[in-house]
Design goal:
By secondary structure, this protein is mostly helical. The protein contains seven helices and no strands. Helix 3 packs parallel to helix 5, helix 4 packs antiparallel against helix 5 and helix 5 runs antiparallel to helix 6. It is globular.
Length: 203
């Protein structure tokens, strides 16, 4: 009896190749975004006392905002997406993207410094939220890169459409970031506190 063969489904391979190529085109931007975020976390942790007043004011604003909206999946998601959108659109002037990333990192480092057990309450949703921040930064920096290359093309009288792929890449990366923020918001609103308290019971 002859062996029955089925047509091979290459769709999975195509998607994997697409995302691999997407990563390769943007890996330096992801690296830059990662370095800015984690460097600022370290600075926020080391210099927590020096930035205490600034961070307290910032946390006060956030507390007031959530006290009005309530802490739930939607309010967390909208707050995170708002920050991500500022990071992304800030890519029009790259320093804005870098600055917002830096402030987010400072806040994380500061919170860990003043509340050593904070990682127990950050890690459950942070596994998704921190990569989401990094990708939002990379998407913003891709916008910066596109504008820079388009200006160069205009100066050299070359078609700016050659750089449209950068805009498409930025949208895809931002879309992935938004999905990660959604997962993070679900975990933070419904599981983080319980998981954090459970982990804390072992200390």
């Amino acid at each position: 009896m002859s062996e029955t063969t089925f047509p091979e489904d290459n769709s999975r391979g195509k998607y994997l190749n697409y995302f691999k190529a997407l990563y390769n085109r943007n890996k330096w931007l992801i690296l830059i975004s990662t370095v800015i975020l984690f460097a600022s976390v370290l600075i926020g942790y080391i210099y927590a006392n020096a930035i205490d007043q600034l961070m307290n004011e910032f946390l006060g604003v956030m507390k007031g905002k959530f006290s009005k909206e309530g802490i739930n999946t939607l309010s967390i998601l909208l707050n995170n997406l708002q920050s991500a959108l500022f990071i992304y659109v800030g890519g029009v002037i790259g320093i804005i993207t870098a600055a917002i990333l830096f402030i987010n990192g400072l806040l994380i480092g500061y919170v860990i410094a003043i509340f050593p057990l904070a990682p127990l309450y950050i890690i459950p949703h942070g596994i998704f939220e921190i990569p989401a921040l990094i990708l939002a930064g990379a998407a913003g920096f891709r916008i910066t890169s596109m504008i820079f290359h388009m200006i160069k093309s205009l100066i050299k009288d070359k078609p700016v459409s050659d750089h449209f792929w950068e805009f498409k890449d930025s949208l895809v990366i931002f879309g992935i970031s938004a999905l990660l923020f959604l997962v993070a918001a679900i975990i933070e609103a419904n599981f983080t506190l319980g998981l954090g308290n459970y982990l804390r019971s072992f200390i």
